[in-house]
Amino acid sequence: MIISSNDTSSTVEASGINLAPKDFKWYPFPPGQCPPSYYVILQGICAPLIIIISTVLNSLIAVVLLQKQLRSATNILLLAIALYDTLTGLFPFPTYIYVFTFKNCNDYWPYNYGWFHRINYQVLPFIFHTCSIWVTVVLAIQRYIYVCHSEKAKQWCTVRMALKAIACVNLLALIVAIPMFIEGSFHPITVRSLLDPTKTLEACLVRDYSEDQRFSTLYYVYSVLRALLINVGPCTILVILNAILVERMKAAKQNRARLMRKRSHETRAQEQTSVTLMLVIVVTIFLIVEVPMALHLIIWGLLQLLESNFLSEFLIVAVQFLNFAVLLSYPINFFIYCRMSRAFRDAFTELLCPSKTQNRQERLPSTALRLINKQYNNDDNYNHLESNNNTHIEMKNSIIKIQPSSTVILNHRTDEALISLTPSMNSVDIKHNGTENSPDSIMQQHILFRDDAVTSKNKRLNNL
């Protein structure tokens, strides 16, 4: 459809700028009217910087979580959230630079730019942000199952189920976004350039069906459903699950001393509590930026229903700051993972400084070998390992080999691990001279014996 600029019935010259025909408007905004200064600051300066930082940090998260030792159902969901957050910022990035950073708004927008702007600035960010929201809900549900229904965790909290949930979330986001493709139609109009009157170009007009009285009811229903599915509903679910998890964490902290007698069990419980706390913080930050957005949509919908302009200008400005707050929350997850997850820190350190990690792994077996060589005496029938405080640990004839990669001493006769030297602080009881001494006070190492070592009648060892 071509609308001639000479048709005075449809367009009128006013101050050198053509007025849009009836039922049409200039897209994305009238020519010659650059966005306000706060638009330029937020979306032309701050937003591109935040997107670059977020992309780098989320890429590091993805590389770390893709390592084999960190592949789990929870980490798959965290990886998906990092990916969706990155894509939510990357697709509108060209528009931020072109429109707001360089202020290319002094002339009519080309018709060919209409769909590009609509898809990259509105539709795709909406789809990926929707996916991020619902994957966060799936993550909270998964942690709820871990904490409150641990007997069902093996069935529901698996990598396979996590991938299925992500696929369902993608499908949901695509279905919800379908009306965005058809809620308006673009039309070209031939006009003279404002910068060079000798040139003509095809400007972009849009017919917005949401403002058409024939479709107003349908659009209102769609807006309410979208708000419920994308903002209000997920935030309500997350608030409830977050409250339950926090309450269970408090109860677990109070009962841990009474219920967890063995130190290894207590260590595992503390690790699970740390993971739960980390995810609770991630969800809480998500709610801090999403709940105000949900309230904004509710208030905006009510004002549209009542056909009132009350607070309309304030809401238009507020939504820009709310969108920027959502964008600002994307890089924060990286620092939360680094602060609260030791496994993530170790994997990240190994990724950046593999030589440092390798030296640390090689230093532990070499230290153990020096201790063994210093206190190891050959005998025809027995091998004795003697510590500095005269504690004797008796083992049958065997050839002892240390593998630096696993820091495990292997028995060549049985091909089983006899001793595992790790830097953990798990307690092992060794009966010595009528008393029980912890290896924490001996050599700060955890010594784990297999069945052939347990047969010794003079020793009592607990694998904690």
UniProtKB/TrEMBL annotation:
Localization: Membrane
UniProt entry keywords in alphabetical sequence: Membrane, Transmembrane, Transmembrane helix
Record-annotated G-protein coupled receptors family 1 profile domain positions: 57-337
Transmembrane segments: 38-65, 77-99, 119-141, 162-182, 219-246, 277-302, 314-336
GO molecular function: G protein-coupled peptide receptor activity
Protein name in the entry: G-protein coupled receptors family 1 profile domain-containing protein
Record's GO cellular component terms: membrane
